[in-house]
Write a structure and sequence with these properties.
The structure holds three protein chains of three kinds.
Chain A lengths: L4 H22 L11 H13 L2 H33 L1 H15 L7 H8 L3 H25 L3 H9 L4 H39 L4 H10 L3 H29 L1 H4 L1
Chain B lengths: L1 H10 L8 H16 L10 H13 L2 H33 L1 H15 L7 H8 L3 H25 L3 H9 L4 H38 L6 H10 L3 H29 L8
Helix pairs in contact in B: 3-11, 4-5, 4-7, 4-9, 4-10, 6-7, 7-9, 8-9, 9-10, 9-11, 10-11
Chain C lengths: L19 E12 L2 E13 L4 E5 L6 H9 L6 E6 L2 E2 L7 E4 L11 H7 L8 H14 L15 H13 L5 E5 L7 H18 L2 E6 L2 H7 L2 E6 L4 E7 L11 H15 L7 H7 L4
Classes of the chains: A mainly alpha, B mainly alpha, C alpha/beta.
The structure holds adenosine-5'-diphosphate and magnesium ion (MG).
Magnesium ion binds next to helix 1 of chain C.
Chain lengths: ~250, ~260, ~280
Amino acid sequence: MKPDLKLILSVSSPLLLLIVWQAVTAFKLFPPEVLVSPTAVVAAFGEVIATGELQRHLSESLTRLAGGFTTGASLGLLFGLALALSKTVEQVFGPTFQALRQIPVLAFIPMLILLLGIDEVFKIVIIAKAAFFPVALAAYDSVKGVPKSYFEVSSLYRAPWWVLISKILIPATIPNILAGVRLSLTRSWLVLVAAELIVADSGLGQMMEMGRQMFRLDIVMVGVIVAGVIGFGLDRLFQLLQAHALRWKTA
Amino acid sequence: MTLKTLNLNAFKPVWLLGLIPPVLFLLWWDHEAAKGGANALAFVSLAQVGQALIDMFSSGELALSYGSSLGRALSGLLIGGGIGTLVGIAMGLSKPVEWAASPIYNSFRQVPILGWLPLIGLWFGSGDLSKLIIVALSAFYPTVLYTFEGLKQVEARLLDVGRVYRLNGWQTFWRIQWPAALPSIFTGLFQALAFTWISTIGVELLFSSGAGLGAMMQQAQLQARLDIVLVCILFVGLTGFAINFLIKRLSQHVLSWRSVRA
Amino acid sequence: MDYVPHSQIPGHKVKQTGAVSLKGIKKQFNFKDRELKVLSEFSLDVQPGEFVSIVGPSGCGKSTLLRLIAGLDDTYDGTITLDGQRVAGTSLERGLVFQDHRLFPWMTLEDNIALALTNRQISKDAKAKLVADHIALVGLKGFEKAFPHQLSGGMAQRAAIARSLVNEPKVLLLDEPFGALDALTRVHLQGELQRIWLAQGSTMIMITHDVEEALYLGDRVVVMQANPGRITHTVDVNLPHPRDRASPVLHRLKDEILAELTNVPEAPNSVVRLIKGDDQ
Ligand SMILES: Nc1ncnc2c1ncn2[C@@H]1O[C@H](COP(=O)(O)OP(=O)(O)O)[C@@H](O)[C@H]1O
Ligand SMILES: [Mg+2]
């Protein structure tokens, strides 16, 4: 068997990057405020874990994320469903919803700081807002997208409303809604990191911002990597949940 | 029955219903602002917001900030989108490049875009260069992905035609692969456009020295000038709206031959 | 063999080149660790300027065979020659018309046809003239600037034929060129193809699942069977071109071929599929 070029290349390219990085720092091509070695980053990682700093920041960030995301996503789900199912709700709230959706969440940060201060409430609200819109939109779109013929079939068989919901509405809409929830989770994480960087009083974002102000490149890099790993991990976790919830689809 | 509904709608335009929430909200807002007291700092009257808009407009401050943000977003799109398209092409045309580049691309992409800012700030300072790098990066990711996917999905049946007429590598790329991938590439660019606007506001909020709508908002926040903040939000939102509208229109146009079978 | 060479058919322009010879072709696909024998000991000699029709059930390897002759696939055993020269890779001497027209939706009809001339070492003017001539040949004058989605299925297929003829190939390979068209357009295009063939005189090898079409156009009809793909029968059609569809000879031959195709103990389903024509 010939060697698997794909495997070799996809393993060696990140490795090569690491080696070059280490080599560049070993030859001191840049001062340490500009580039620290991978091993220094690992050491900094050990340091922030040993002092408990990382765990503290991370647990603050994740608690916030959990609170904001759950609130925003569930409100978004309810709102999206109401918007799709009731003509009146759609006529009254639809235009406002569509207009607010166009404004990047980040743009609300200064206003919310002025109205709510920089405490926990502000952070939860901004994350909730980030989580709200993708879920609401997905719920609205997917319920609206259920073909009329499905409902006609069920009325033909005189199905009661709970059958309509459990046998038609939920199976037909859940895949798209879950996709919206997944997007809103990613967005929430992005907005949380941004908000923590701006306000910089606690959490992973603050750790990075402090690192920057103290020229601790190693700590900043630890922050970047942790932010990436958490973002990836959350998305993966949700993907698994999604696959689990949708296993009837492939069966 | 149909006639009746029609008449009803003619006399009661339904779109007016959509004005209820914003109008109620504004009335409540003005009421809170008029109450003064504990809330006086935060709530500003609509008249004040209007005045701020006029002031910012006439002093040229608004135009300067807006122009600077828009310029940042567009240059980020140009740079990030340009490099992204080239990288996407390299990955889409060469399997070894794909294999070597995708693990790196995929791991870098996991970091929330604004999370790069402290690091970039250490390297390049908190000025325009750092901001541009982040904005360009936000355009880079979707263009790489969609260019790559677009090229990967060019059907073998179309490539066979090129082989029958003995097109060389360059001719095959330029006459077949590139146009076939173009709808996908445009989709990526559209997404990049939306992303650059968001990340522009984000970087300006974080590195709030210099011009820009985000910087203006952040500075106004420090001075507790909600009126200015609101004017900025209005313009950020209107631009977001315009971008989405533009994207919708352009994609209908650009994607029109996707529905046509080759 | 009482085959009358096409050169004796009145009104036919004869070329001395375009002899295709297939000797002992064996082709298999390795599919999920399984070997799928598609063609076995397939041999066929086609005279210069001859029109050979190939009919056979779905999946018997007809498209595969054409791809081998076109040079799109080089992994097979046996030899394929054109005028005594072994074929290797694609060549402008061997044109190919696919079942779906495969015009590029982003190019005008004119550009689609000109694409075929990309690597011909002739002047720009000569290219433009060739393109214009071939558009006229297939009766699409006036549609030069049209995009494929503005053409009907029949027009698009004509454009595809023009594209494959514009290089004046020695042999034209046609893979169910009219398979996707409605019956009326089909009859019309069969007539057109016959006219073009008579005018151009290049060798043609056409695959079809329509026995009537095969007989109406072909000097010879080759009948294939599946598993593995091989020739079971060859029918010579000794009638002058252009032909009369109502000819009793054609009807007799058609019955003969259909009987042959229905009489296959090892593949009872093939005829049903053949008649339904779902050869995709
Ligand atoms: N690229 C391929 N890989 C594997 N099997 C193939 C491939 N192309 C064709 N086949 C198989 O070879 C057989 C003959 O295919 P084809 O030549 O398309 O038949 P026909 O054109 O006569 O309908 C079929 O069983 C088909 O599934
Ligand atoms: Mg076929």
